[in-house]
Amino acid sequence: MHSRNVMPEQALETQLLELNIGPQHPSTHGVFRMEVVLDGENVVKLKPVMGYLHRNHEQLAEDMTYIGSMPFTDRLDYFCAMTNNLAYAIAVEKLVGLDVPERAQYIRVIMSELTRLVNHTAVTGFLLNDLGAFFTPTLYAFREREKILDLFEAASGSRMMCNYMRFGGVREDLPDGFLEGACEVVDYYPKFLDEFEKLLTENEILRARTQRVGILPKELAVSASVTGPMLRASGVNYDIRKVDRYSIYDRFDFKIPLGSIGDVYDRYYVRILEMRESVKILDKVLRDIPSGEYLSPRGKAISKAPRTFKPPKGEAYGRIESPKGELGFYLVSDGSVNPYRYHVRPPSFINLTILEDMCLGHKVADAVIILGSVDIVMGEVDR
Amino acid sequence: MNDLLRPDATQQALQQRVPGLTLTIEGDALIIPADRLLEVGRFLKESEPYRLDYLSNLCAVDFVVEGAHLETVYHLYSMEKKHGPVVLKVRVPRDNPHQPSVVSVWRGAEYQEREAYDLYGIIYDGHPDLRRILMWDGFDGHPMRKDYVQEDQDALEERHA
Predict the structure, then answer these.
(1) pLDDT tens across A106-143, in order?
(2) A103: enclosing H helix or E strand
(3) Which residue of A97, A123, A331, B50 sits 20 to 30 Å from the alpha carbon of B145, by its own alpha carbon?
(4) Are B57 and A317 within 8 A, CB to CB?
């Protein structure tokens, strides 16, 4: 008779499975690959592999005039062209010591905060994609994002590749009707966030999938140079808008939302709260904006004749709080028309440093949402 | 920048507290001898009143004229004290670019050092996993060096000649 005994123990061999996730999986946010080693479904090792979109942005910029690489900064984090422009403009202004007129400062803050709304809305939608809620939340998010992109188009001529900031101000003044349109969008935004939150924040599936997943402890976050909503979700109060008070951020009253655990859920929720704070800033800035120049005379001269613009020998590091974290530009000038060294400090590249630490012990499906909660854009990671 | 973090103040404090260390100032930056980098890093990170716990930016620069060397630039801030930056620079010769890695002090250096190694060829001794990160494995050379020649640099010109 056939024995129904279980197999002898030595026959039950298990082995670790090496798996490539990406570079083309839809949830990987672009051409990004993760080499994972799995024990069953659990991640025991994870190495990110990147560079598929590498075009040596930095070297291209070193062969160009200073203003010439402004449009290329749009293509770093293509969701946040405006803040990329701003960070680069601030670095150059620091290098040369350029002043920015009052109205231009207000325009810059308007554009930065609108960009923050765009980015956080989109990334929340994508996070839900990664969770398996395929494209319904994303389209809710994109519906709102499109209204803001219309505003960007009205101001700069392009929805995403704005190329709008200039050294010493912005390229064009705001068109007629922009402020009214922006007020309308901003006034409606809290209603959209309420609707979004009603669907998501208390949602049992979202909570079950994201709470206590991908925890990033405070100390590790600081030591690993993590910045932006990721850092704040881990409970570290560090926002460059408050710390450096660049542009005119010292004039607005806004809070810095902090998470307590540092899991995926906290990262989601910190972003929602940050959007509410951005709405507060926008409310004020849209009503207070003064009339005046949008670009300083020196800035106009530079834009008109880029080859006459030769910053003095020296170096500068300018940084801002972009929606993804600290975006910095390090410039070294040798006194010629093109930068001797041009370096981008990309937040999403550096935030990936601790991806493995967050994923260890979790299931493959969780690794996908942990990656989603980091909020990366490959244009910026690979440069 | 507050007075504490001015380059000359930091230089003095470092020279007092780290025995046998001499530093030079260039602009806003302190030039650190490569072999003392880890001591300096740990001191700045751990001691009051600096607590520079956050390595914001690490990148390399290639200087080909005036005493050719490769330089690694560190921008340090403090998340605890909310101050900064302190700028450190380490210089190594272009033909033997070895210097210590600071990953053991600031984990955030891990990918940034890999990038500097990939694009400039600086070897960070003690890095846990020093591999190329943006270029592919098996790529030859370090493309951000000023004397790097693309293999097809002349291809277009030749074709049109």
Answers:
(1) 999 999 999 999 999 999 988 888 888 888 888 888 89
(2) helix A102-131
(3) A97
(4) yes
> For residue A3, is pLDDT > 70?
no
A223 vs B contacts (CB less than 8 Å): 53, 106-108
Mutate to test the interface with A, among B1, B107, B119 (most CBs of A within 10 A): B107
B156 Cβ contact partners less than 8 Å away, ≥ 6 residues apart: none
DSSP secondary structure string for all residues of A181-249: HHHHHHHHHHHHHHHHHHHHTT-HHHHHHHTTSS---HHHHHHTT--THHHHHTT----HHHHT--TTG
Nearest partner of A83 among A375, A345, A327, judged by Cα? A327
Pick the residue from chain A with its C-alpha nearest to B1.
Answer: A244
Could you tell me if A46 and A34 are in contact, meaning their C-beta atoms sit under 8 angstroms apart?
A: yes
Nearest to A57, CA basis, from A46, A43, A68: A68
Sign of CA dihedral A86, B54, B130, A356: negative
Residue contact A220–B57, C-beta within 8 A: no
The CATH class that applies to domain B3-146 reads alpha beta
Q: Do B56 and A315 touch (CB under 8 A)?
A: no
A→B contacts (Cβ < 8 Å), by residue, are 50-51, 54, 56, 58-59, 220, 222-226, 236, 238, 243, 314-315, 317, 319, 326, 328, 330, 332, 340-341, 343, 345, 349-350, 352-354, 382-383
> Would the CB atoms of A352 and B144 count as touching at under 8 Å?
no
- The predicted-structure confidence for A290-304, as pLDDT tens digits, reads as follows 999 999 999 889 888
Q: What are phi and psi of B16, to 5 degrees?
A: -75, -40
Tokens read off for B29: 């930056």
pTM for the model stands at 0.91
> What's the sign of the alpha-carbon dihedral A244, B76, A349, A219?
negative
Amino acid letter, residue A299: G
> Min CA distance, B71 vs chain A (Å)?
11
Residue A3 amino acid letter: S
Distance CA B72, CA A22 (A): 33
pLDDT means over runs of 10, chain B (161 residues): 79 83 86 89 88 92 86 92 89 91 92 93 92 89 86 62 53
The residue type found at B132 is R
Other residues' Cβ atoms within 10 Å of the Cβ of residue A31: 17
Report strand pairing: B83-92 vs B29-32. parallel
**Cα distances (angstroms) measured from residue B20 to each of B40, B50, B73, B134:** 12, 20, 22, 39
Q: Contact at 8 Å (CB) between A242 and A256? A: yes
- Tell me the chain B residues in contact with residue A61 when contact means C-beta distances shorter than 8 Å: none
Is A343 close to B57, i.e. CB distance below 8 A? Answer: yes
| Residue B56 to residue A220, Cβ atoms within 8 A | no
